[in-house]
Design goal:
By secondary structure, the protein is of the alpha/beta class. The chain is 21% helix and 16% strand. The strands form two sheets. It has a six-stranded mixed β-sheet with strand order 1-8-9-7-5-6, with helices on one face. It has a three-stranded antiparallel β-sheet with strand order 2-3-4. A hairpin with a 3-residue loop joins strand 3 and strand 4. The radius of gyration is 18 Å and the shape is globular.
């Protein structure tokens, strides 16, 4: 879960601030859809194989847990959670590359966790207890604009409604989660992470909501926390153990701490919701 400054978490990435004015994305309302009942998966187990797979892919294995992950329709499914706001289904764990102990994984993080270039459909959920508020819907529009204005090889087509099953991504509110922040996963097989939760941001500004949603979309298209090697934004000093910084930095971006990146693990209540220059460099390098 990406939380506010008392630890909150989140992965590596970026952007410039083109203009101070927020752009508006046209709102398209999707027809109401009948929700399919979700069948509960078998209980997940944190096995040695799961730990080894996560560790070899440069994830922090210090706090791996199994959680009940709420879906937009209110049902839950079990998922692995690492680094506070990153979740993996059993299928997505199996899809991670398997490295031998001691093997170098330089640059594999980027090449194995990217989205196939195309227009991605993203929906803001508006049904029942998991509906985004008006403020959160505005923040989602701003977050989508953050990406679309860069002219990347991925682009987002935004709608609002409840018919999320056929969409690439769905952003929704989780009323049951404690703290403040968001939760997402990483791409798999060329597709983005589908489910993005936000929670506890009711009293935060539109800009802070925009920041969290932009950050979680960043995870969903393949970015780690920019301070994953130290989690300095959370007031910590925790290296995740993969050499001096754990992975090759994106060319043109800092090797060390970048205090204004959207992809820092933790956030404050005065975020502006925009990418910094390094975020933009990273996005344009990968997409």
């Amino acid at each position: 879960m990406r939380k506010m400054k008392f630890p909150l978490l989140m992965a590596s990435f970026l952007m410039l601030l083109l203009g101070c004015q927020k752009e508006e994305t046209p709102v398209i309302t999707e027809p109401e859809a009948k929700v399919e009942e979700k069948v509960q998966e078998a209980t997940l187990k944190i096995t040695d194989e799961v730990i080894e797979t996560l560790q070899s892919n440069f994830y922090n294995i210090g706090d791996v847990k199994v959680i009940d992950f709420m879906l937009p329709d209110g049902t839950t499914e079990e998922r692995f959670q690492v680094e506070g706001d990153i979740t993996f289904s059993a299928e997505s764990i199996q899809a991670l590359p398997k490295y031998k102990k001691g093997a170098s994984a330089d640059k594999n993080y980027h090449t194995n966790n990217l989205v196939r270039p195309r227009t991605l459909t993203i929906i803001g959920y508006t049904g029942g207890r998991n509906a985004l508020s008006n403020k959160e819907q505005t923040a989602l529009r701003y977050a989508v604009n953050n990406y679309n204005r860069l002219g990347l090889s991925i682009r987002f087509s935004l709608t609002f409604g409840t018919n999320y099953q056929n969409k690439d991504m769905v952003v929704y509110y989780n009323p049951n989660q404690s703290g403040s922040g968001g939760s997402a996963g990483f791409p798999s097989r060329g597709n983005p992470n589908k489910f993005i939760q936000i929670y506890g941001l009711d009293n935060a500004s539109v800009d802070v909501n925009e920041h969290v949603i932009t950050h979680e979309i960043g995870h969903s298209v393949g970015f780690r926390h920019t301070d994953w090697f130290s989690r300095q934004s959370c007031g910590q000093n925790t290296n995740e153990g993969a050499g001096s910084i754990g992975a090759n930095p994106i060319p043109g971006t800092p090797n060390g701490y970048d205090p204004t990146s959207v992809m820092l693990a933790c956030f404050s209540n005065n975020e502006d919701g925009e990418f910094n220059n390094n975020d933009i460099i990273a996005l344009r390098y990968l997409y």
